[in-house]
Amino acid sequence: MLYRKYRPSTFEDIIGQDIIVTVLRNFLKNEEKLPQGYVFAGQRGTGKTTTARIFAKTLNCQNAKNDPCDTCMTCDLINKNQFLDLVEIDAASHRGIDEIRNLKEHIGFRPLQGKYKVFILDEAHMLTAPAWNALLKTLEELPKTVIFILATTEPEKIPNTILSRVQRFDFRRIGLVDMVEKLKKICAQEDIPYEEGALYMIAEESQGAMRDAETMLEKMSLSIKEKKGVTETLVEEFLGKLSAHKILEFLQSIIAQDHEAALNFIQSVYQEGFDLIHFNKEALRIVRELLILKVHPQWKNQLSRQYPVDVLEKIEEVAKTGSAGLFRRLLKIFLHCEMQLRREPPILTLPLEIAVVEGIAIVKLSKKGGK
Ligand SMILES: Nc1ncnc2c1ncn2[C@@H]1O[C@H](COP(=O)(O)OP(=O)(O)OP(=O)(O)O)[C@@H](O)[C@H]1O
Ligand SMILES: [Mg+2]
Ligand SMILES: [Zn+2]
Question: pTM of the prediction?
């Protein structure tokens, strides 16, 4: 599994969680005052378990300064999941009070191999109310050599009494650019050819969850055709979504008043089985970018965090071919089209076809009016 192979093994490798890494490193500098309870909250695949392990590793590493050395015996054991003082518990299957009581006994023993015993309680929000009570007492009387990390995707389910006794860290969704960077590195190491736009599509689809992106990349890389690599076309087939390039082509045909090209485009989108509502949404999204770029040129900075360079260039190119007024009207047309598509029209492609005809009519008008 790619996501296992590329799981960060030092703080250095963790992406998109800079503040958390900085604060944890600062804690490590002053062990006298080291907090013993932590909550790592945030959506799935953002690095909670990974960071907890790296924190445990740094605490126990024989050579650690800022980062675990990753070579000493302790680091090695942790990497192999054989370190006895790092205990990972899945709260989803150990939800009850008995389990927490067992844990309590376990906590009483001194660390066997390292300096600290670290407990990572994954999916902590699954604990039952009595289990929380037992845990609360445990947290109140932790021996100095014990660290507790609760990881959860649903921090709102953690009782306040617990939250007020721990350091809470909120993991952020991983940004597109960071995600694409990591995907590129994986592709380079795994010898997977790729188109940058394809990696952006994967990253976009994963909505901030790095693991999802890595899993998707893996699946796609296994079905590469004719050694072309992970291309936009391949990702399109996989996700049932069109690339920004294609959407821009479609918009260009409307602006060029080319009925034939635009209507054929819709037919092929339909026949190839792409979701029409989604297609319309993507068109909407790009017209929105065009409009904002027109009235507020600095928007380009924002766009550069969402699209690869070649798409950004094309967006700018298309923006030059119309006025803000035109894009505003097109936006309204696609908005209206979305509502119509959701009403399951008698001919499924009809709303989009009307949008094309109206769109081209508006282009004609705006060209005549000179704006
Ligand atoms: N911040 C990150 N930097 C680099 N890789 C990451 C990051 N977050 C997640 N990953 C990748 O995703 C995989 C899963 O990460 P991890 O298990 O830490 O997520 P999690 O937040 O604990 O998710 P879950 O809530 O599903 O348990 C890692 O093996 C790694 O490949
Ligand atoms: Mg996890
Ligand atoms: Zn080490």
Answer: 0.87
